[in-house]
Here is the input.
Amino acid sequence: MKAANGRSMAEEAHEIERRAPVRLLPASAARGRVRLRTLCNLRWLAIGGQSAALFIVYFAFGYRLPIVACGVAIGISAGLNVVLALRYPPSHRLTNREATVYLAFDVLQLAALLYLTGGIANPFALMFLAPVVIAAATLDLGNTLILGGLALGSVSLISIVHKPLPWAAGEVLDLPQLYQAGIWASLVIGIGFTSIYAWRIASEGARMSAGLAATQLALARQHRLAALGALATAAAHELGTPLGTIAVVARELERALPENSPEAEDVRLLRAQAERCRAILARLANPEEAMLGATARLPLGALLDDIAGPYRGEDVEISIEIDPQSGPQPQVWRAPELLHGLGNIIENAADFARSRVRIQAGFDTQALRISVEDDGPGFAPEIFERIGEPYITSRPGHHALGESELGPSETLGQHEGMGLGFFIAKTLLEQTGGSVNAVNLGGRGACVRVVWPRGVIDGETPPASGQED
Here is the structure.
């Protein structure tokens, strides 16, 4: 399956996942926040099991063991649960560090109980696996290794230093050293194998979830682009007839007016703009017939001058500055996505600049950079975070792309927008391999920066999105 830009949907999803770290958390971050209630419930379960085993062994079997010391260890664990329940709400989520600390407490509490009741000869030494496996399934690799190391250190310590295993009065259970070494080895192998297995399974699940989210985002973006394409085709068909009528009427008015009439210039402008609209709609209706133009590549400065030309007027000065330290200008492909994307940004800047738009370009061995600055009011804070989403606009009365409010006199002559301009421009420029970033200039206007890796739009071949499948 191919996306609208000629790349496979998998490639499109991978590109979105790479460029959108804010929307798609990395696998480690996605698994790095555990609910406190989950750990508390597991600890209550462990406390119940430890208490039951302690009372059965001491009262039912009559085995002598340090019941008070063991009770203190279990009581501390229960007290921790009570304190956490009082301090945090039930929905509180733990960071990696907090979860590691609480699970480390569980490892040490279990080690203390086993130290008092026979060390690794106690059959419940197997419970060392539980905290490490929980960490492997929910935390990142670093914290899992910390808990795994703590568990292995505790197992090794209590295998050497521990109280005797509780047994019947007058009898002593003395296990051979080789058998105890086997128990130690089985615990070490079990902790290592189960934790690695749990971590790998959890990592695969997290990566699958991130990939699914990226694919859904790519599908949603392609769906919006397809819907816009269908809308553009329908608009081209519906608007063709009224624009033709306007052009005919304007031509007749132009013939009827005297050559030096004050209204003649306005009529000629009206007819020229109507013809321009018809040409644009013709390209929308027949996108397969769109051509790059007579010159497929131009020097960077000439390309920017070509794009900015239609938007130069008497009220706003558009200047183009190429960093002289960068060296010879690269030859840039006149890809339709590049022309339309940069043209839309320059048009928006010209619409809302007070007197000047400055286009700056620079390049080095790593990247090619273009920035478009205006001296307008800047982007409005209330929708600044949503710049680049479709249907985000405040025309008339705001800076283009959803920006600061202007008075009625300042918006006179500006067109109302649908909030699609920057969304389309950003999408098209990203399809050429660039990254787009919009910022305010501290009360001195707004700036849109576009950065491409070298060779993407100035290489030997056109940008990938501009080629056929």
User: Anything to note?
Assistant: DSSP finds twelve helices and nine strands in the chain. Confidence is low (pLDDT under 50) at residues 1-10, 16-31, 288-294, 396-416. Residues 292-466 form a domain with the Heat Shock Protein 90 fold (CATH 3.30.565.10).
